[in-house]
Amino acid sequence: MISPSILSADFAKLGEEVRSIDEAGADWIHVDVMDGHFVPNITIGPGVVKALRPHSAKPFDVHLMISPIDNFLDAFAEAGADIITVHPEAGPHLHRTIQRIKVLGKKAGVSLNPATPAKALDYVLEEIDLVLVMSVNPGFGGQKFISSQLRKIEAIAKRIAKENLTVQVEVDGGIDPVTARQAVDAGATALVAGTAAFKGGPDNYASNIRALRGEG
Ligand code: DX5
Ligand code: ZN
Predict the structure, then answer these.
(1) Which of 36, 43, 194, 210 could form a disulfide with 215 if both were Cys (CB 3.0 to 4.6 A apart)?
(2) pLDDT digits over 56-73, tens only?
(3) Is 32 part of the annotated catalytic residue set?
(4) Does the C-beta of 80 come closer than 6 Å to ligand 1?
(5) What ipTM was reported for this prediction?
(6) Is residue 19 a contact partner of residue 55, using CB atoms and an 8 Å limit?
């Protein structure tokens, strides 16, 4: 799965950007929500997600980098998120947060920062649909892929296989055609790409996505 992050799109015409990246072959649309508190940057809220919803029928893969987290789950679900991903550090009760996402009828994801061990998935892995491994420290697009995360991806993918679970392993940050290959070889099933998906403007989106798939 390729999930282009609209963080790298032109914010002055986000609706058009979502349509273009959808038509270019995106599987999901990755929406980075930042609050200036959990991460050192501010992006968009549920109002923008709602406004974008009519522009694509693809799943909205909403990555919440906000704390406290629980008060905003309903708003993002109502706005049209399909996958809601949260960080364990963003609230005191990760299990409860996951249950709430599921009660809202959405797929639940848990995101691990580079220094957060895979062990943070204990007791929740069997409850969730997606693990989002951060291969950069969250907050900004355009950062360099942190290679140590490949080991984490591998460990999580092995654990999912061993436990016979159906959980996507998504990787977020510094993904380009080279690191995409490395992440997939380590067991990733979904890739977020901001810079690499949106570079060069709409005429290049389809070839950017093909390159991430290793199709030249
Ligand atoms: C980082 C975000 C990422 C980011 C990826 O905090 O979660 O989704 O937009 O951007 P690139 O692909 O440019 O590293
Ligand atoms: Zn993200």
Answers:
(1) 210
(2) 999 999 999 999 999 999
(3) yes
(4) no
(5) 0.98
(6) yes
